[in-house]
Design brief:
The chain has 284 residues and is an alpha/beta fold. It has a single domain, classed as NADP-dependent oxidoreductase domain (TIM Barrel), CATH 3.20.20. The chain contains ten helices and eleven strands. The chain has a seven-stranded parallel β-sheet, covered by helices on one side. Strands 1-2 form a two-stranded antiparallel ribbon. Strands 6-7 form a two-stranded antiparallel ribbon. Helix 1 crosses helix 2 and helix 3 crosses helix 4.
Length: 284
């Protein structure tokens, strides 16, 4: 694939109509300890991954208060602040972490306010550019949770609001309360359960952020074949496939190592043929 491409090779996307970012971002979940719990084994390595992502043109970084918890946001603030003018940091609230591997929803308005205030402190920001409700809480009416974020937006603490792990009906319900500029759902070559939501985002110019973008891909015959043809990695092919699915798609591959960040960003310069895309789509 030649020399190291920049994330800019993926083209750009507008978040909320006023924030333009390169269409290959960085997910900052993996700069934490095992089970997304506690400090990373090597803080300097984690910081180097963050710095390398920005050096390679990544200007959209996805994080959450629950990553660590608090660890990912703290490292971003320590490493990258003062932030480059074009860097958009997206964070999320609505999940609490009783222990490693545990993710419990908490969509109470008072919790979301507390979570947001903590994110602002750790990220050293006065306003979060994109704040996403991490997961609907079955114990709290969805409209109450979204309404709490709308109130925080009115106070100037959130610029744009997004949702995560939602279905079409929940997206519609939220849109009746406040403008929704992004949806972050699980989506990859091996798991397209959120296809209907992704299609809706495509139609309505809502940013779709696929999480776990690389999982379940090594068994896909089309992915393996394209990797061989292009001399690329499985990860690069899958990311290139995602980028080709929709102009509203904003993949955020994560890594705790600068080398892996370079490999992932190189996908921005990989173009798959229509036949290769089709083979991956149907290659299970």
């Amino acid at each position: 694939m030649g020399s190291q491409p920049s994330a800019a090779a993926a083209g750009t996307i507008d978040v909320g109509g006023d924030l333009t970012v390169n269409r290959l971002g960085y997910g900052a979940m993996r700069i934490t300890g095992d089970g997304i719990w506690g400090e990373p084994k090597d803080r300097e390595q984690a910081k180097a991954a963050l710095r390398r992502a920005v050096e390679l043109g990544v200007n959209f970084i996805d994080t959450a208060d629950s990553y660590g918890p608090d660890v990912s946001e703290t490292l971003i603030g320590e490493t990258l602040h003062p932030y480059p003018e074009d860097l958009v940091i997206a964070s999320k609230g609505g999940l609490v972490r009783p222990g490693p591997g545990r993710w419990d929803p908490d969509g109470r308005p008072e919790h979301l306010r507390e979570a947001l205030e903590g994110s602002l402190r750790r990220l050293r920001l006065d306003q979060i550019p994109l704040y996403q409700f991490h997961r609907p809480d079955p114990k709290v009416p969805f409209a109450e949770s979204v309404g709490a974020l709308a109130a925080l937006k009115d106070e100037g603490k959130i610029r744009h609001i997004g949702l995560s792990n939602v279905n079409e009906a929940q997206l519609r319900e939220a849109q009746a309360i406040v403008p929704i500029v992004s949806v972050q759902n699980r989506y990859n070559a091996g798991d397209r359960a959120s296809q209907a939501v992704a299609d809706l985002c495509d139609q309505e110019q809502i940013v779709f952020i696929p999480w776990a973008p690389i999982q379940n891909s090594d068994r896909n015959v089309g992915v393996r074949a394209a990797a061989e043809v292009h001399g690329a990695t499985i990860n690069q092919v899958v990311l290139a496939w995602l980028l080709a699915q929709s102009s509203q798609m904003l993949p955020i591959p994560g890594s705790g190592s600068a080398d892996h960040v370079e490999d992932n960003v190189a996908a921005a310069g990989l173009e798959l043929s229509a036949a290769e895309q089709e083979a991956i789509t149907h290659g299970g």
